[in-house]
Design goal:
mainly alpha
């Protein structure tokens, strides 16, 4: 598993893919938080990172599929998929190794944003910020990125075309993140099943963690979704 992980990390950082991912994530967040009007924290007037945690899921929704789209699709397209299966590795080890490599890249993207916390603390009038809410939001952001990574990896294994994998994973991530929330707003479900439908979406559990309370139900939800998509990826391996 670790050999696959190191191979993928070497692939990410031996070219511009890994570096562009990190730079784009930081650049877009920095522009919206500190430069552009109507979205920067200076105009907001409060020492909070709510804007960052509202924006990041939408950036990751496109960025993570861009990272994962070639992870398995290129293996099939180039013919190295068969070679990979001759290695003394189980299907779970191959899938897990590739998945962990994507998580490491995402971790390197998120860690530099910790400087935002110190920036907000220094800019606040009394030096006090909601550390509990920020910590919960970061945990929620990590689980959100982990779910998107599992979805992207699964979609990459369904096709040999990287562009198709990208578009499919963006749609799947968007559906799970915002789709159930949108369906719950339909008047027909109002007062009946709207709450339970909303609970099926990622956005509901992400917002729950952003309040600073890490509920075991939210953690179980995220872990279950991750396991489900990794299991589908493994099943697809066996079929191929």
């Amino acid at each position: 598993m670790w050999s696959i992980c190191k191979k993928e990390l070497h692939h990410f950082f031996s070219n511009l893919t890994g570096y562009i991912t990190i730079i784009l994530f930081l650049l877009v967040n920095g522009l919206f938080l500190f430069v552009l009007n109507d979205s920067n924290i200076f105009d907001f007037g409060y020492a909070t990172l709510d804007k960052f945690f509202e924006l990041s899921p939408w950036i990751l929704l496109f960025l993570i599929p861009a990272i994962t789209m070639r992870t398995l699709a290129d293996e099939v397209k180039s013919g190295t998929f068969e070679i990979l299966q001759t290695k003394p590795l189980t299907q779970w080890q191959i899938v897990s190794g590739k998945y962990i490599a994507v998580l490491v890249v995402l971790l390197f993207s998120v860690i530099p944003t910790f400087i935002y916390v110190f920036t907000i603390k220094m800019l606040s009038a009394q030096g006090n910020i909601d550390t509990g809410g920020i910590a919960g939001s970061y945990i929620g952001l990590f689980f959100l990125a982990a779910v998107f990574a599992a979805i992207g990896l699964c979609c990459s294994g369904l096709t040999s075309n990287a562009v198709v994998a990208f578009l499919t994973s963006v749609f799947a991530c968007l559906l799970l993140y915002f789709g159930f929330n949108a369906v719950s707003k339909i008047p027909y479900f109002s007062g009946n099943a709207d709450y339970y439908i909303e609970m099926l979406g990622i956005d509901f559990h992400y917002r729950s963690m952003s309040r600073g309370v890490v509920d075991s139900r939210d953690v179980i939800y995220f872990v279950s979704i991750i396991f489900l998509f990794l299991l589908i990826t493994k099943k697809n391996f066996r079929k191929k």
